[in-house]
Amino acid sequence: MINEKLEHAFCVQINKELYSAYLYLAMQTYFKDMNLDGFANWMAVQVQEELAHAMGMYNYVLERGGKVTLMSVDKPEDSWNSPLSVFEKVLEHEEYVTSLINELTSVAEEVKDRAAISLLQWYIKEQVEEEANVSNVLGNLKLAQNDPRALLLLDRELATRTFVAPVIG
Ligand code: OFO
User: Fold this and answer.
1) What is the Cα–Cα distance from 56 to 83, expressed in whole angstroms?
2) Pocket test residue of 50, 103, 129, 135 for ligand 1, highest count of atoms within 8 A of CB
């Protein structure tokens, strides 16, 4: 049976993952409006990943005999000045999520839930990957931002990203 404090911390994090999906959906819409379909595709994959992250935690709480309490998902911001400012926000957001996952892991350690600690190792590694992916796109965007041809080439590259359902845990 899952510890109550940890159950609550997982429910809060499920909400944060759903918020992340919602934020990236807003960004997908922003790029769609700009006719940057490759960037929009990159965000669409990101939405799927965040939903998978939420469900990984949801399934864990249920498997351990806990109860998932759903909370309101905040409205995300939905306007930015440029593709570069969108990706600066993504990196800032992912760094924030990394800090949340670390805090959640601290709760799991405090209540000595070894299975949860093991599950959260997957999320910790995933955050390293997420931050690296975003930094990569951000770096390319910094090079491309004042050159429409370079921006379109990057858009084409981002159109090739596909969602592969993660095996969590
Ligand atoms: Fe983008 O990260 Fe979830 O956990």
Assistant:
1) 30
2) 50
